[in-house]
């Protein structure tokens, strides 16, 4: 049996030319799903930013910094976008990661070492409302959201967000069922399903979303209605406030396949035009369909770069197939190969780590090879390193970071030396 091994050589000068002006980009995802609920993560970030900068990290992606259902929420169960750990709501002032003042101090510390902060942005849904409301819905087929499977009827849904703890600071908007397209729980019958909200002023699911399950607008919780003018106005205001109050250098956008793409275009166009057109915007559109990814980037006028999900699964396949995998094809059918300027490469993340919904963890033996592929190749412009691979994963089934030293060494090489010409060559040993 033949296998092909891909090797890389660099022609390196003793000192990399123009390092100060052409420093290679390296993004660090500074969290994993099972971080301890100590409220000290922002302080840790501030303490470690110098070391990370010296290592070669240029940008850091922080977890969602706003209030969730409790101070143990990872950040994706959004309760109040405007509360960054400043108000006593949902049983706590701080978030899982700390307070707003601690966050702003950490960001300023990072900026002093020329490290740019990107905040995780969750626009798809809200959760953990304050009270219930009666409203009209129709049940839809969970496997085909365009198929209505009931007549209209009323349910009692958790859709009223009052934000009494914030008292109207920053935004006076209080959310109710008219601001959402759907929910998944009826408090009358104590039943779950996919309930599309109908009635006066409701246009149904957003049309400009992924076509998986017919229409993949609805994902979870109270699905935000981007066809509602009050919603759009408040989110426009909030996005600008986030950039300026935290002095962000960009965003990581979550769950793009579920968010109306026309809204997203208008939202980004507005924020980049009134702030910095060079703000870095990266997004998660979870599909291996390369055409869908490329079309999304083009339709957004290349204001956004997307994670290279197809490359992740190529790395995953290589780690499982071992010597049965042809490494010369590792970049085939990837966003990196088609559009490297708009591709964010990664090995693993908080969704692919063990126990998560998209569990596709790269096997341990292949981790150094995978990181070498995304950190040392000249055509890969925007690699992302996962917190769990540098510091380990916690929780009930912890995963140690066995290759942390190797990955740090690769980051250092990328930062200090990976600026020369690149030569690829292939061996063909017989097994």
From TrEMBL:
GO function term, MF aspect, one: calcium ion binding
Gene3D superfamilies the record matches: 2.40.30.140, Glycosidases (3.20.20.80)
GO BP term (any one): carbohydrate metabolic process
Entries under SUPFAM superfamilies matching the protein: (Trans)glycosidases (SSF51445)
Cofactor(s) needed for function: Ca(2+)
Keywords, in A-Z order: Carbohydrate metabolism, Glycosidase, Hydrolase, Metal-binding
Domain Glycosyl hydrolase family 13 catalytic: 25-414
Keyword Nucleotide-binding attached: no
Family matches, as Pfam families: Alpha-amylase
Domain of life: Eukaryota
Family per similarity comment: Belongs to the glycosyl hydrolase 13 family.
Stated name of the protein: Glycoside hydrolase family 13 protein
Organism: Conidiobolus coronatus (strain ATCC 28846 / CBS 209.66 / NRRL 28638) (Delacroixia coronata)
